[in-house]
Amino acid sequence: MAAEIYRKPIMFAIVAAVVILIGTIATVFFPMFTEGMHPKLENLKPYTALQLAGKDIYQREGCNNCHTQTVRPLKTEVMRYGDYSKAGEFAYDRPFLWGSKRTGPDLARIGGRYPDAWHYNHFENPQSFFKQSNMPKYGWLKDSKLNPADMEAHMKANGFPYTREEMADLGSKTELDALVAYMQVIGTAVAKKTATATAAVEEKNPLANDPKAYEQGEDVYKQNCEACHGDDGKGGIGPSLQDKTWLGKDGDISDGRIFAIISDGTDNGMPPYGAQLDKNKIWSLVSYIRHEQQKH
Amino acid sequence: MNDYQYDHQTVKGFIVSSIFWGVVGILIGLWISIQLWKPEWNIPPFFTYGRLRVVHTNGLAFGLGIGAIFGISYYIVMRLAKRPLLFPKLARFHLHLFNAAIALAAVSLFMGMNQSLEYAELEWPLDIGVVILWVIFAVNVFGTIIKRKEEQMYISLWFIIATVVAVAVLYIVNNLSIPAGLFKSYHLFAGVNSANVEWWYGHNAVGFIFTTPILAMFYYFLPKSTGLPIYSHRLSIIAFWSLVFAYLWTGAHHLVYTPLPDWLQTLGIVFTLFLIAPSWGSVINGYYTVGADWSKMQTNYLTKFFIMGITFYGLQTVQGPTQAIRVVSSLIHYTDWVPGHVHMGTMGWVTMTTAASIYYIIPKIYNTEIYSVKVANTHFWLVLIGQIMFSVSMWITGIQQGALWKATNPDGSLKYTFMEGLVKNYPYWQFRTVAGLIFTVGMLFFIYNIYMTMRKGKSLATSRA
Lengths: 296, 465
Fold this sequence. Notes:
The complex is a heterodimer. Chain A is mainly alpha-helical. Chain A has three domains: 2-37, no CATH class; 49-185, Cytochrome Bc1 Complex, Chain D, domain 2 (Orthogonal Bundle); 197-295, Cytochrome c-like domain (Cytochrome Bc1 Complex, Chain D, domain 2). Chain A has eleven helices and no strands. In chain A, helix 5 packs across helix 6 and helix 8 (213-224) crosses helix 11 (279-295). The longest helix of chain A has 24 residues, at 9-32. The mean pLDDT of chain A is 91. By secondary structure, chain B is mainly α. Chain B has two domains: 1-188, Cytochrome C Oxidase, Chain A (Up-down Bundle); 219-465, Up-down Bundle (Cytochrome C Oxidase, Chain A), CATH 1.20.210.10. Chain B is built from 17 helices and two strands. Chain B has helices at 5-35, 49-81, 88-110, 124-146, 155-174, 191-209, 212-226, 233-246, 262-274, 276-291, 296-299, 301-324, 326-332, 337-366, 373-406, 418-423, 426-464, and strands at residues 177-179, 185-187. The radius of gyration of chain B is 22 Å and the shape is globular. The mean pLDDT of chain B is 96.
């Protein structure tokens, strides 16, 4: 009997289709009707027109070929990027943009990590931040303006709310503005973890009397800090480390406080480095900053 | 022989077209391999890595892969049905539409029209084109098989029928989207649901484009070129049905440790492990077939292509399931290990088997012998060496990346910044470009050999006339 189907192509195709559909129904069609596939965090907001335009550009440029947008619940991954990704963060992503390859770092928690200026400068010239970066330059995006009519159609297709004024404003924005706006909203529905390491910090720099420490600190500074805080701490995207506050003229900042700022970051644009730099490196940075202060 | 003359033009057309798109895809592959270690090779807006990579993958999967599958399937179907195609003119139209669609697809991807669904990047108007292409293919395949002059359907026909059915379902469902203009659409599915649909599609694109039609070629051309019958018919029945059953459950292994519900991840992993069995069913069948007379490896130049091809298929289908296991995935997912894995399958199994099938078909069509067995042997060794260098270097750098990302200092902080890890890839990426270059040179030997065979065949035909 069974041998019959090897003589009947239509019957064979039907049986093959049924066999193929069993796994499809079990793992794709059935789950669609379960709640687990449609989670939404309470404070997740639909994209604004500018953010959606940025997401469209992210897709157009194929950013997802090198950058993932999902932090796995693995210890070192959470340390490097931030809280692991939650299912309810992606309800407005059509399609999902988790990616499959990390040639560049994960971007699931990039929103709010750096100030806007960081992104503008980095898109313009990634190598000015990381000399050996292989990321292409995207400064050319600032030469194209957004098209409000297209964006209105895109907002409608997604069913996102928008206002007339919002759409009118778009005409004056560039593609780079949109991409930065998108960067800054990614992953922000999950609250940033705030200061945890500070509790255990000593007030005095244990390397204070080590003359070598500031040299190591200088290396660390050049690799991680210089792009924002400038040559010798003159300032740039980030504040000067030679102004009155930092020079102690407006009241001294303790070693422990500097350590905490480097380790935990701040709410106005300083990313946390506690997971990426060990204590020794951070203290050597404190030594370096102190050393620079003494020059002035 | 002459009964088939007209349809042979179509078969040949598909083969030549697929080789052309293959060259485009391979050259772009070389280009993007250089971009990884030399960012100056990015030329915005059309030729940045983000846009070129999808031209590379689509060019090779759809241009080379599907083009060759269309042409070679037509050839196999005609032979096994013992009759010409039922709709020869439709098949000719199919060829022209195929080339037009691939050209438009390449242009649209350069322009950045991209759904951001891996291996389903083409925007919705082109998706409709692909569906039309597939329907035409299905009509001719089924029509010809129904009107066949041979009672039994040979194994290769089962695999071709399964391909036609499965790709139709996969492609249509995953490409359902909400259009927002002629060149832009949004996935009908959102978030985790979108991810689940996409990787069900993505993994089965591998299953039903890079596996079943290639197995159809393997089961047909291995006995044809060696003269040895397939070792076990029963084994091929078991392997076929368990393969097409299990494949559809496995997509979630691409989403291990993502927010996809845990039960789906686990189910995907379990079925992926099971998949070793049917895959190795075909591997064993291949080995035992040639096992009847291993001297064929020396006396028949095509045998080694098929045996090497099925060997890489066997390695691929053990490595793949290994990667699905959570602890392995946590180390190698998102690293270069994965492109290393993919390229073993595409360069080692798919291209090897397809090239051997073309070596068999072209002399048959022209009623002549291959131009040069020596050139074919050179081709064989170059693509073999290039592919092994490519895959092995990517596995090593993948493990290194995974390890550096996980490394911690004694105080628990991370040992390496992302950049410190990235720069350690550069030597491997440079090595990979060299490997790709060796592979490309091998493919040029292949193309030269096919071209010369066709020339020889043409002059023979003129002298006969």
